[in-house]
Amino acid sequence: MCSIAICFLLGAIMVIGLRDARPQEGQGARTLNDLARWLRIEAKRQIEGCRRLARDGLTQCFTPDGAGRYGALWTRDFCYMVEGYAEGISNADLRNAVGYLLRGVRQDGVAPDRVQADGRAVYSAGSTENPVGEAPTDNAQFLVKLVEFTVNRTGNVEVFTKHAATLKKAMRSIPRREDGLVFIDPDAPSRSPYGFTDCIRKTGAVLFSSVLYWESAHCMARLYEKVGSGPDALRWRREAKRVRDALRALWDEKEGVFLAATQDCRQPDVWGSAYAVFTGAATEQQGWAIARWLDKHYGEIVWQGMVRHIREPEGWQSLLRPLPANTYQNGGYWPVPGAWVIHTLRRVNPQRASQMLLDLLQHMHEHGVNEWENKNGAVGVRNYVASATLTLIAVREEEQRSKTAQ
Prior knowledge:
By secondary structure, the chain is mainly alpha-helical. The protein has a single domain, classed as Alpha/alpha barrel (Glycosyltransferase), CATH 1.50.10.10. The protein contains 15 helices and 11 strands.
């Protein structure tokens, strides 16, 4: 994200040889079982390393990096930690962190991009001195997902009943067009889209945040069902269906893949398309088409098991911050979406999907758990927690597949 890579915002990308990032322990593991065991240990180490006690003396700010250098709790990064490696976070720490984020929701409903260790909520990506436009279009959705996870994990619905109105307001604060898709007005002040492309100027209806809206609307429906509010649950399910139906506006029939946006950056979206399949937002027909597209363009989007946002040799058509080609969000390779791509690819090429996971695990084992890398040796933030935790989703799917096959 822009906010945790200020060096990239300033255009000072440091190129470091990958051999210098190689861990000194655990060399030699090569089988999937060995590498999966290593990654679980590594994810636990990263979670422990990213803790930073907030000024309230109670809340652990789980920072995006496993060295705790960034003194804030990022909404989406924390969600990705919980989704991928929940066992690394206690119930008490989960409740406190989610409450910390909920207290940061603005009066107008805008959810925080992050809340700093001093308790200050920050709503835009980028540094506090140089924000990247208006608030990104995804934080409300991640906050809703965190609340549902907390309720399911703890069995206590109070975190929802106490904050239901806040969550509803946060969801309504996301700009959308009449058909329900999340919308960024090209004529309005600039706004970041999905946070892992917060330096990219996508405008019109945007894919990733819309898929997240579909997903979190279902979360709201399930939460209302838990507290016995059937009419509210029904309204949110209808809203989710409206968004899913509207996704056809972002479908490229010729390519067989979703576009990132309908105006600026009207380009095939690798991450967003795979995530639409992973979550179930894509229709069955779309899911098969996307799987075939990923398989066809595999060599243009995947390297060492890591994934570009868009296929080579393209860069994004419009940027909110200057980013050199083939770096960071403009063509770097990331572990974060690996599980979504592997899940989708398995539909049409299970052997390649399994090999992709093995490649990713081997690469991280040998070169470290990094935010992004490229073929020229550039490396983003090291000890990037979401890279480890989200990859564990793919590990669990592969282990379950192997059990089923036995």
